[in-house]
Amino acid sequence: MASTFVPPLLAPFVRVYGKVAPLMGQLGHMLVFFVRAIVAVPVALRHYRGEFVRLLSDIAWGNGSLVVGGGTAGVALVLGVTVGALVGIEGYNFLDLLGLGPATGIISSLVNTRELAPIALSLAFATQAGCRFTAQLGSMRISEEIDALDSLAIRPIPYLVTTRLMASVIAVIPLYVVCLAVSYLTTQLVVQVISGGATGSYLHYFTLMLSGQDMLYSLLKAIVFVWIATTIQCYYGFYAGGGPEGVGVAAGHAMRASITVVIIVNMLLTMALWNVDAGARFGG
């Protein structure tokens, strides 16, 4: 096999290109997949409404579903309780040093709403329902079921991917509202147990900083996170290869990519929605 001569001065750049080019190619392929899945929403609603309704029922409320039966609801609630307790413990212990223990309500209304609750829910959904999406599509790929859909004139991406994306986004809305409420309640209970004081001061500071706009932005973040994580995990399952072992490898890659992208997008959305301004002012 003939080898291509590379000048010594260019050799480091060629090696870097050899490592970066495949990664950029995969990112471009994933972006095209992401766009195709979004563009296919009207197609899925027009031709595959039955599959969408079935998936929505299975994911959200069906017997043995991915969320309730599969444990995502339980995981989300546990994470909501955990992050709420952590905010209550750490926030109160720090502010109490300054004599501002009840002001932990400020931390709860900002941190739970803007950061922790959306991330907690997206991770719960990705680790439970998202992994199952990867396994389902991966097993269909290696058993050539996706190729069979093509032969039957059924478009695989709208039928398998877009329907899952839409069902996930709709199913996650009520689940997120419950998770956020649980985190609020847990923080309040923890502060009350630690301080043993009345709830009036805590609720005063809590309502001082909490706004409906923040809650809507928080819900938007949760929806975006679930949409991105579900798309990534469907992508790795849709293009899985290498037999049953390849499905497991694809699930691992999907989890790693989903968590990384969600954290990066969280930073970008926080800067875009709130910038560096807390959105409230103290006066007096």
Automatic annotation (TrEMBL):
Question: From which domain of life does this come?
Answer: Bacteria
Q: Which GO terms describe its molecular function?
A: phospholipid transporter activity
Kindly give the Pfam families that the UniProt entry links to this protein: MlaE
User: What GO CC annotations are associated with the protein?
Assistant: ATP-binding cassette (ABC) transporter complex
Q: InterPro entries from the xrefs?
A: Permease_MalE
Q: What is this protein called?
A: ABC transporter permease
Species per Swiss-Prot/TrEMBL record: Mycolicibacterium celeriflavum
